[in-house]
Amino acid sequence: MIRPPLFLPSLALDSGNPCRNDAVGAGKLVHLKFSHYPHMKPFPSLPEDEIGRIDKLQAAYFTASMHLYDPPLPKGVPERLERIVASAGIRPSETVLDMGTGTGILLPIIRTYSPTRIYANDLSEAMLDSVLKSHPTVRVVKGNVRDADLKDGSIDVVFINACYCNITDKHQAFDNIGRMMRSGGRLIISHPLGWSFIAQLKPSMPFPLDDFPADRREAGELFDPYGFQVAGLVDEEKLYILLLAK
């Protein structure tokens, strides 16, 4: 069984094409600093105190749910996770950020591509401690990704797997991700159980869950202000992968 918000979707598939498949097939703590780069805001804003409240709630929730990430994973999920990582086309010279890493479910697969450096980001300190026990060479970044103080243009690939829907401040999160990424970088928003899983979670979760972009047009409208173009979209019953290029 997998902890709930490591797997989050919603039900509004494109009625004209419900199964879109056009996508390309050392334990160091990094300190955080708030950074804001103004753009138009395709995502709604929340008050700072509400963002802080939800972040604390999520950190506590995920820490308490860590055991749900233990193997074995549901049938088919390991293979879909491999497809998610493969979609990024990671090269050995590149640097990868795994945002919302949890206990590091993607890290063993990412490491098979031998990137130069891997950063793992999460709100939960306990989860990052777990990551470091299994992957001591990974550099952990604790806190909200909107506050990550990595250098401009220092990241080639960012994974947002099974946590896009519960990013509280999407505007500043993607603003900062765009700042940190190099030209030619790839941003992968994914979920290995697809839309319907999020819809099932919504009624029982103690914090709000958003929907995934429903199609290429919506994704383009959302992410163009942050310097990203839609490069591919896989939308299957139990797999969602949105590939964005910078």
Task: Provide a concise account of the structure shown.
The chain is an alpha/beta fold. The chain contains seven helices and seven strands, in the order H-H-E-H-E-H-E-E-H-E-H-H-E-E. The chain has one domain: 3-Layer(aba) Sandwich (Rossmann fold).
> How much of the sequence is in beta strands?
15-25%
Radius of gyration: 16 Å
Give the neighbour order of strands across the main sheet: 3-2-1-4-5-7-6
What is the residue-averaged pLDDT? Answer: 85
Q: Please bin the fraction of helical residues.
A: 25-40%
Shape: globular
Give the count of helical stretches: 7
**Major β-sheet annotation:** 7 strands, mixed
The CATH first-level class comes to Alpha Beta
Per the CATH scheme, the topology name is Rossmann fold
- First-residue to last-residue Cα separation: 35 Å
CATH superfamily: Vaccinia Virus protein VP39
Low-confidence stretches: 1-39
